[in-house]
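Journal club side-thread
Mid-discussion, someone asked how the predicted structure for our own chain would compare to the paper's figures. Pasting it here so we can look after the session.
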Amino acid sequence: MSFRANVESMSKIMDEMGITELDLERQFLFGVYRKHIHLSKQQAATVAMPALGAAPAAVRSSDSGADSKTSGYSLKSPMVGVAYLAPEPGAKPFVTVGASVKAGDTVALVEAMKTFNPIKSDKDGIVKEILVTDGQAVEFEQPLIIIE
C-alpha cells in the first residue's frame, strides 16, 4: 500500500472515530522516531451544548465573526490549536459571559504543538459571548470570544 493510501485510510478511520490527533512512535536500533499528526477539517457551523454545571450562556461554535444579532469586538485565535477556557481541568474558567475584562487579561489558552499559548484581551469590555467550548479545536483567525 502506498504512503498516500495509508494516510487516506488512517484519515478515514480517524474521521469515523472522531479522532483529531494521532501520535506515532516507532523504535529503531539507533533511536526512536516520533511524529504528532493533527488532522483538522473545516465543518459547517454547529451549535455546541454547554458542559454540565456550566451556565446556560450563549456558548456556540462559529466559523465567522459576530452574526447579525451579535455586536461587539471579536477576539480571534492567532493560531491553529485546541482552545481551553480554564488554566487546568476542573479549574475556574478565565472568563464567563457577563464578566468584565481589561486589555491584557488572559481569557483563554490555545494549545499548539504541546505549548499552551495565552490568549489575551485586546481591549477593555464585557464578555458578551463565548464562541468555543473547552477542548475544542480552533482554526487560525477563528472567533473565540465577543467583547462589547
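Post-session note: The beta strands are 21-28, 31-38, 73-76, 81-84, 100-101, 106-112, 115-120, 125-130, 136-138, 143-147.
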